Amino acid sequence: MDIITIPYHLILPSIIGLLIIGLLIIFKKRFWTKTYCKSLWFSACVFFGLYSIIVGYAAYEDIWLHLELEKYDLNNNLFFDGEECTNEHCTELMKKLVNDTGRNLSVFTGGIKALVIAIPILLVGVATERLTK
Q1: Domain boundaries, position 62
Q2: Count of domains observed in the chain
Q3: Mean pLDDT, rounded, of the chain
Q4: Is residue 87 part of a domain?
Q5: pTM exceeds 0.85
Q6: What is the 3-state secondary structure (H, E, C) of 75-129?
Q7: More confident call, 46 vs 97
Q8: Highest mean pLDDT: which range of 36-40, 64-68, 70-74
Q9: Could you tell me if residue 14 is inside a domain?
């Protein structure tokens, strides 16, 4: 079994997001003393949680594809000749691995998707805090 390359451009943002969630939980009391900061705290937790899940799943899928494709490398040289990859499943795995624009850009698209979900949560939280006061 050869070394699998870890996609650092996917792992690091996911770990940073999880660390920020940890910091938000540690400093929760500072956020909960001010008026609209409860909603900001909750929406920040949702944003970083979703972002970490999206980017972490992309990293998991990249590593899984490398591991699955390595099963078809018969001579363990990390190159696929025409003889090694004759199976339909192998060619589909190679297509998924080569056409990985979506996984590589998940750092940006994950942030956009998480922001689209976190902003309405923030607005609803601020509106409910205003209406209750």
Answers
A1: 8-67+95-132
A2: 1
A3: 84
A4: no
A5: no
A6: CCCCCCCCCCCCCHHHHHHHHHHHCCHHHHCHHHHHHHHHHHHHHHHHHHHHHHH
A7: 46
A8: 36-40
A9: yes
